[in-house]
Design goal:
Largest sheet: 2 strands, antiparallel
Order of helices and strands: EEHHH
Number of strands: 2
Radius of gyration: 17 Å
Length: 116
């Protein structure tokens, strides 16, 4: 999926699936969307009410920060593991390593899953 990252973050900020597990995230989204041709209006209304029609996205900005921290942590962890696993492994260049700086990323899309 490079250069894209898919991270599943719970509402409390816990990362359920890191970018290293995109298949699990996609399967979960597929199962949740099965049988629904479009978004559920009641849940969209609930989201709009919670965010004041998108004016207060502070909670979701915090979740994005958790996702970015997870991307950086998982990337560094995988790089360190590859160094221990093989003598021929090399560290990625500093510019190729993701950071947890939101300015370094473009948010392509997001999905909020709410209980009715």
């Amino acid at each position: 999926m490079a250069p894209y990252f898919l991270v599943y973050v719970h509402d409390d900020g816990t990362v359920r699936f890191s970018f290293a597990q995109p298949k699990e995230s996609l399967l979960l989204m597929r199962d949740l969307a099965a049988g629904h041709a479009s978004a559920l209006e009641k849940l969209c209304d609930l989201f709009d009410a919670r965010t004041k029609n998108g004016a207060d996205m502070s909670h979701y900005d915090g979740l994005i920060q958790k996702a970015l921290a997870s991307i950086s942590h998982t990337f560094h962890k995988r790089a360190a593991s590859s160094l221990q696993a093989s003598r021929s492994a090399t560290l990625p260049a500093a510019g190729d390593m993701p950071s947890d700086d939101a300015a370094a990323f473009d948010l392509v899309t997001w999905l909020v899953i709410l209980a009715p």
